[in-house]
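**User:**
If convenient, please work through this fold.
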Amino acid sequence: MAMSIAHRATGLALYGGTLLIAAWLIAAASGRNAYDWAQWAAGSWLGLLVLFGYTYALLHHMVGGVRHFIWDFGYGFEPEHRMNLARMTPFVAGGLTLVAWIVGLAIR
């Protein structure tokens, strides 16, 4: 039940993050001053925190989707397997988030 709620919450967070990406694209199309301000906002500590949260929400939602994909093939319905998949979801998403940020910062 908790993973179902978390999956819906991350889906909702992705809507908000997508609006921020759209705002960034609009700023990029609006000119240098608007783009510079958007870049400053995204590069601030609060902006980076929001981007990190967006990355986690995206990857958590994706891992939840993979869990459902496994179920679509008929695997993982046993109570022990189902609980293990649910328990692993936030940790796998967290690990993937850290890897994505480390790679992103390394190539920056």
